[in-house]
Write a structure and sequence with these properties.
elongated, four-stranded mixed beta sheet, alpha+beta
Length: 147
């Protein structure tokens, strides 16, 4: 979670006023950017995040922490990677994507993106269950008829 302080965008022409961004906005940008990278299965989050998702509220800040020290942004991202993908390549893509998206959307410079791989998610085989034949009795009868 980010600090409650606002981040002020440096703008040469401040005649109209200042622009402030809440750190949670940066967390959302980083979370969406990381989750869109190929090879990322899901973002790591707390039990509260999981309960919120079950209730239908997606939390894009999940697994993202922002630290702002004198306009030096450090972003920590916790992810699960899909089995079979290259961890170093995926982590590097996450770093580049987050830096790019934060820079494009806010003009802020990200000094560090630390990717923490919390686990590997294996692909689950597709299992189709016929709701009219939950125990597979029809398939067993077909196999016996062929014999």
């Amino acid at each position: 979670m980010a600090e409650d302080s606002k981040i002020i965008l440096n703008n040469d022409d401040q005649t109209l006023g200042t622009i402030q961004i809440a750190p949670r906005v940066l967390e959302i940008i980083a979370g969406i950017a990381a989750s869109e990278v190929d090879g990322v299965s899901k973002m790591y989050g707390s039990f509260a995040n999981s309960v919120s998702e079950l209730l239908g509220r997606s939390d894009f800040r999940r697994g993202v922490k922002i630290v702002n020290n004198d306009d030096n942004l450090t972003i920590d991202v916790d992810v699960y990677i899909e089995y079979g993908t290259s961890v170093p390549k995926t982590a590097e893509l996450i770093q580049k994507r987050i830096k790019q998206q934060v820079a494009l959307m806010t003009s802020l410079k990200v000094t560090e993106v630390n990717v923490h791989v919390k686990g590997i998610v294996a692909e689950t085989p597709n299992q189709s269950v016929d709701p009219n034949d939950i125990f597979g009795e029809k398939n067993d009868k077909k196999a016996e008829a062929k014999k």
